[in-house]
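Weekly structure sync, notes
Attendees: PL, DS, HV (note-taker this week)

Item 1: DNA primase
DS walked through the input record. Source organism listed as Saccharothrix yanglingensis. Sequence as pasted into the shared doc:
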Amino acid sequence: MEWSDSWRGAFRIELRAEAVTLAWHGWSVLPGTYPAGDQWAGRDGLEHHGPVPVHHDWEARVGTEPDEVATWWAGQSYSVLLATGHGVDAVEVNAELGHRAAVALRTTGNPVPIVATPAGRWMFLVASGGSVRVNDDVRHYAAGEYVPLPPTPAHHGVVHWRVKPQVCGWVLPPASVVQDALLQARTTSDYDLVTADRS
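Item 1 (cont.): predicted structure, written out as tokens:
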């Protein structure tokens, strides 16, 4: 997807507003590189992979106040990245497993913020400090890592919310809640999934 300069300028306002809102709620957001043709711009030269933090010393900038966060997006349409391990972690799965786990969470009345990427990955945002059993289908982002948040642009779309943090009142569950939902999702039949999704 090509992002024109005029569109990018208009979109920068939305990216900045989202970054400031997240920072006001205590989430450690950072500016990240953005798509530029087949590469990623915003750092020293072009990057082959992204989004990655614009600042090489990004870990030292974790916890920056919202007013300073606003200045980071004053001139460029940077991606919105979340530094995990500072109150918020992310559990990433493929879209199919993510959908099944989201249904399991909904049926048990445990809303969890969920982010979806254009690459077909879902990320469940949980409180830092827990642990999740990882494998080829499940990845846990914690201290020293970062993930993209909406409305970060990608080459083939935009990162978006499947469940916004407002749904759970910005209160994140422990990782064990998502771990249980993933275990339930693996044992749920397609019939059970359809029935639960209609309720």
